Each structure stands twice: as C-alpha cells, then as structure tokens.
Amino acid sequence: MAVTLTDDLNLIYDALFAAFGHQHWWPARTPFEAMIGAILAQNVSWTNAARAVRNLEDAGMLDPHLLAAADTAAIACLIVPSRYYNQKAERIREFSAVYVAEFGADPAAMAAVETGELRERLLALRGFGKETADTILLYACEKPVFVVDAYTRRIFSRYGLLPEGASYDQTQQFFAENLESDAELFNDYHAQIVRLGSTICKKSPLCDRCPIREVRGPLRCAVGRT
Ligand code: SF4
C-alpha cells in the first residue's frame, strides 16, 4: 500500500513522542488561565509568559470579572515579564470583558460556539492574530484546530514537507488535511513541535541530536540528511 502524507506525519509524531514523551500542554490549571496565557505568550518565550501568569495569580487577579473591570495600568504592572505589557494589558482587559459579557465567563459556553464562528469572533478582537485565536480554540476550548507557529514552518520546510515561506493558512491546511481531526493529537503535536524547535531545530539546527532526522528509510529531513 502506498505511503501517504498521513503516514509520514504520524511517524514523525511517534518519533517525537518517543524522544520527548507527552508534553502535557497547555501548562494551565483552568481554561481561562490558558486563554490569558495565550495572550501573554505573544512574541515572547513561555517562560516569560508564565512569570506574568503567576504574578496575576499571586495578586488574586486571574479572574475574568476582575480583569474586565481592572485599570489597564494595574494589569500592566503585573505582567511586565511578558514584555509589550501595556498592549497586552489592553488585550487582556478587552478579552476578559468579552468573555464575561458574551460567554458569562463560562468556558463551556464559549466552547459550545461553532468553531468557525468562534474563531471569527476572536480574530475580531484587537491584537488577536491567528496563532493566538487558534491557541485558545485548541488549548482552552479543546477544538480540533492545528496551531501554527514559526517553529512549525521552520521544521517542516527544512524537512521538505512544506515549501519555504509557507503561509499560516497553507501550513494549517497541510496538517488539517493530513492528520485525523483530533484535538488531543493536535494538542500534543504542536507541543512536540515547540519542544523540537526550541531545543534542537533552532536557527542553527543541531541535527545530530534530532529524533526525526531519519524516521525511516525514505522519510528523512532534507536539511539534516547525511
Ligand atoms: S534534522 Fe536538523 S533541520 Fe531537520 S528537523 Fe531535525 S534539527 Fe531540524
């Protein structure tokens, strides 16, 4: 039987899983924390975003009603580690207001909205790009939406499975068309990609340590090929 792209993507995932284990994302205790974490993680490492999340929690502010009513400056001073804190404070306040007004601060009510409609609503918020919206859809609402980031594009274009410079939509479509539509799988697949991209397939890739350099005979990375 002919080997398909689905087989290839599943084998790559299996190799990543075997190397790194399950990543247990999103590292948040509640869906709302995952939503706020997705905003705080824009353009910074998760380590920085996590420090800002903890500051909000320690101040007793990780609550949608409190954040919706808070002064932007009061939020900003708690999220300094996430950088761009004034902008992000605005986004957090505005998102929290919408979450309270339109979804009753209930993650189940938000998750009950049809995926495309909810994505459009999130994308209409100021400062919400596709990656942030999709992160919330996948990790807070458990919708089967594949999250794309710079690591995804870098790794899969180096691998030779995506063209260099593939767009967000093109990359997302590639995974959506070739993987089973499964939120659990999408959750851990993206997490594995972040793990590989941040530790091994960096700007200067450490191909000698890469668990997917050669997955099986013909399935091997175009860049890491020996
Ligand atoms: S073999 Fe090298 S270039 Fe290819 S995915 Fe692994 S680290 Fe990246």
What does this structure look like?
- Residues 40-199 form the HhH-GPD domain.
- Keywords: 4Fe-4S, Endonuclease, Hydrolase, Iron, Iron-sulfur, Metal-binding, Nuclease.
- Pfam families: HhH-GPD.
- It comes from Methanoculleus chikugoensis.
- The protein is mainly α and 226 residues long.
- It has two domains: 5-24 and 147-220, Helix-hairpin-Helix base-excision DNA repair enzymes (C-terminal) (Endonuclease Iii, domain 2, Orthogonal Bundle); 31-140, Endonuclease III, domain 1, CATH 1.10.340.30.
- The protein contains twelve helices and two strands, in the order ααααααααααααββ.
- A two-stranded antiparallel sheet has the order 1-2.
- A hairpin with a 2-residue loop joins strand 1 and strand 2 (219-220).
- It is globular, with a radius of gyration of 18 Å.
- The model has no long low-confidence stretch (mean pLDDT 95).
- Residues 155, 158-159, 200-201, 205, 207, 210, 212-213, 221, 223-224 line the site of iron/sulfur cluster.
